[in-house]
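During the no-cost extension, the postdoctoral fellow (Dr. R.K.) reprocessed legacy sequence entries with the updated structure-token encoder. One reprocessed record is reproduced below for audit purposes.
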Amino acid sequence: MDFQKLKKFPVKIYEDWIEDLRDLKRPFVLTELFLRNANENKEDMVLHIWPMTKCVILGMLDRELPEIEKAKDYLRSQGYEVVVRNQGGLAVVADEGVLNFSFIVANALEENISMPHAYLMMVDLVREMFSDFFGRIDYFEMEESYCPGAYDLSIAGKKFAGIAQRRIKDGIAVSIYISVNGNQQTRSNLLKEFYKIGKNGQETIIKYPNIDPDCMESLDILLGEELTMEKMIEIIYNKLELLGFKVDKMSFDGSLQEKYDILYKKYK
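Re-encoded structure tokens follow.
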């Protein structure tokens, strides 16, 4: 299912640059808010853009590591803050060279948007974003990457992005991280050591990744283009308009702020 099937929904874009390391829960609380809103307002789609600053986002499964506290201490010793998200199972790095964004929409097409369909919509959107560049984008699980999944995005066998999904009733949120620039091997080695410390040589029921840093790369290197966060966001806006979507910036009104404040207090 291609992303253009969502064209009936006007796109409200909400940019939220997370620079305060004391507020790392914010993007995940916003996802929850937008998901709940999608059940009430099924006429719009939200595109939430949320770059972060030098942190590691843990998945729910990472909390089961035998030595998780020591592993988190290691990340902090390397200058990274730590937050746990409520979608996706395993850890990813979010720093100044990684772009995170999500689309949140109601399951309100004539055809049901299944989980695979929703993932493929994000795959299609990313392919559209970079259709003007040379480089075929494939999707398959890159088992030796961090946070491997069936919809890992790669060029020439090197993973540069991963996708996660969360649903509340008819609300669908599909999120992606894209390693845009910066040293991807440093990111991979960071999480390789995190899992080594966290497992502490013990057998675990959960299969944690055996990370090979060479199986991932940043998108600027794979495309041979200089890419910045600002350029990536410009590409998103331009491509949506080119595809015929009605695009507008989203304002965060008092009603949303009130709901956000309630959810923020509940988020753990």
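The chain has one domain: 3-266. Residues 39 and 235 are 29 Å apart (CA to CA). The remaining legacy entries will be reprocessed before the final report is submitted.
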